[in-house]
Amino acid sequence: xxxxxxxxxxxxxxxxxxxxxxxxxxxxxxxxxxxxxxxxxxxxxxxxxxxxxxxxxxxxxxxxxxxxxxxxxxxxxxxxxxxxxxxxxxxxxxxxxxxxxxxxxxxxxxxxxxxxxxxxxxxxxxxxxxxxxxxxxxxxxxxxxxxxxxxxxxxxxxxxxxxxxxxxxxxxxxxxxxxxxxxxxxxxxxxxxxxxxxxxxxxxxxxxxxxxxxxxxxxxxxxxxxxx
Length: 228
Description:
Blueprint: H1 2-11, H2 16-37, H3 44-51, H4 55-61, H5 65-84, H6 88-93, H7 95-110, H8 113-125, H9 130-157, H10 167-187, H11 196-214
Helix pairs in contact: 2-3, 2-5, 2-8, 3-4, 5-9, 7-9, 7-10, 7-11, 9-10
């Protein structure tokens, strides 16, 4: 056993737990620097220095800066889905409530400082690095639109939607109203919806206004009560 420990130390290779911690540290540091400085102005050398790791430690995990940035984006998208996706039981028992709760969770996520910083990087440098913007679309925006459409489909199957609703278009419009508008305003530097109550009130108002047009009955509020 002692010989094995000695060999592990001499090899210089971290065990699995240390490797996972290093992965998380590198991604966290890269996310912050890409958000603060932009993609072009951030180097792998800077990320390594701030994270306190060797440059080769990063390159063993990510062959290039582009690969590292794409991993940051993919992890952000995965974290959104993990946090916002409702349970199958909730979708089955109350699909409308599941959709509302998902929108409310996503509102917090897209207005987080980390998401706003990376969004500014997309906007500011997307014309120079279109492949990165396409990657963000494939790993963040497209999966969230599919999630919204999936939940709206469950609402439709429960017989709650008007028959002429195009589910894909309607889910995109719902996401634009509930999420896109506030996100855009924050990107422009406006300090809006900074408290949980303000976000609750905004989403409640937007939800009722939108659902009035697509539901077959008066739009229930987030608590399941009929709309005022």
